[in-house]
């Protein structure tokens, strides 16, 4: 009887194990988010207007508020995960986050690794310097004795190397305010970054200390990103933006955060 009891226990445990293996897994990341009850978003506190921590200690900005709306429409909570700029895509690909939401340009090179949503806004790389500087043209900037501050891994870094091959490129790991600090402190002569980022971030520095030069290096599509296999989530996000463009919530966000400085009185 003892031998039969042992065999019965082994068969029972094997059955439980096999049933466990055959338990239905979430069909895709969107279903996993719904089951988990949480949307995990990789962000960077690069500064206004897309993602920053305001004077009250609250994370906000255009991209952050878009993601809060997404979570609200999904019926889940949202959790924001901080990464350096060059850590955003690795965090997404390693499944630490479901979605990458930053003012990231959808470049062809990045699209080899991730799937970008349809662009939610267009911006471009610009050049900035101390107010009243002698830099006026690409020729003024493209000299061996000129140092240019850029963000490591950014499109600004690519554009600076492309337009200013003679200059010294100094790459910083972190957010856009580092570049403005570098220029004001004399560690760099000029900086290159997205126009929307520079406009928003220069408001945090003394008035009339920085100016954007009349040099636009590119026009770039900004987009969110998901893992290549997450087509359902990608389609849902694109549909989300279609809906909020129609009902006015997209314009409300962009006009408040990106096209004006109205956010400054609240944050």
Model description:
- The protein folds into two domains: 30-122 and 221-265, 3-Layer(aba) Sandwich (D-Maltodextrin-Binding Protein, domain 2), CATH 3.40.190.10; 125-218, D-Maltodextrin-Binding Protein, domain 2 (3-Layer(aba) Sandwich), CATH 3.40.190.
- The longest helix is centred in the N-terminal third of the chain and has 20 residues, at 2-21.
- By secondary structure, the chain is an alpha/beta fold.
- Strands 10-9-11-8-12 form a five-stranded mixed beta sheet. A three-stranded parallel beta sheet has the order 4-1-5. Strands 2-3 form a two-stranded antiparallel sheet.
- Strand 2 (52-53) and strand 3 (59-60) form a beta hairpin.
- The protein has helices spanning 2-21, 29-36, 62-74, 88-93, 138-141, 155-163, 177-184, 195-201, 231-247, 249-257; strands at 38-43, 52-53, 59-60, 77-82, 99-100, 115-116, 121-123, 125-130, 147-151, 168-172, 190-194, 210-216, 220-222, 225-226.
- The protein is globular.
How many discrete structural domains? Answer: 2
- Main beta sheet strand tally, sense and closure: 5 strands, mixed
Strand arrangement within the widest β-sheet reads 10-9-11-8-12
Would you tell me the overall average pLDDT? 89
Q: What would CATH call the homologous superfamily of the largest domain? A: Periplasmic binding protein-like II
β content, as a range?
15-25%
CATH architecture of the largest domain: 3-Layer(aba) Sandwich
CATH topology annotation of the largest domain: D-Maltodextrin-Binding Protein, domain 2
> Any idea what the shape is?
globular
Protein name: Amino acid ABC transporter substrate-binding protein (PAAT family)
Pfam family, one: SBP_bac_3
Keywords: Signal
Organism: Desulfosoma caldarium
């Amino acid at each position: 009887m003892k031998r039969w009891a042992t065999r019965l226990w082994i068969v029972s445990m094997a059955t439980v194990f096999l049933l466990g293996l055959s338990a239905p897994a979430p069909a895709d990341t969107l279903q996993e988010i719904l089951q988990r009850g949480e949307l995990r978003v990789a962000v960077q506190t690069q500064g206004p207007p897309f993602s920053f921590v305001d004077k009250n200690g609250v994370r906000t900005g255009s991209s952050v508020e878009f993601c809060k709306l997404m979570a609200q429409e999904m019926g889940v909570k949202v959790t924001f995960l901080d990464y350096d700029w060059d850590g955003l895509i690795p965090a997404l690909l390693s499944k630490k986050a479901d979605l990458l939401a930053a003012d990231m340009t959808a470049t062809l090179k990045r699209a080899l690794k991730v799937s970008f949503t349809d662009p939610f806004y267009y911006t471009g790389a610009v050049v900035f310097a101390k107010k009243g500087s002698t830099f006026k043209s690409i020729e003024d900037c493209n000299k061996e004795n000129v140092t240019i501050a850029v963000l490591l891994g950014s499109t600004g870094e690519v554009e600076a190397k492309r337009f200013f091959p003679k200059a010294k490129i100094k790459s910083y790991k972190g957010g856009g305010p580092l570049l403005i600090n570098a220029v004001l402190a004399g560690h760099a002569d000029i900086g290159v970054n997205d126009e929307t980022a520079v406009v928003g971030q220069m408001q945090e520095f003394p008035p009339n200390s920085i100016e954007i030069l009349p040099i636009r290096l590119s026009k770039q599509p900004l987009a969110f990103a998901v893992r290549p296999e997450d087509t359902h989530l990608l389609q849902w996000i694109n549909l989300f933006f279609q809906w909020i463009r129609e009902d006015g919530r997209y314009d409300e966000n962009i006009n408040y955060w990106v096209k004006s400085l109205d956010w400054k009185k609240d944050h």
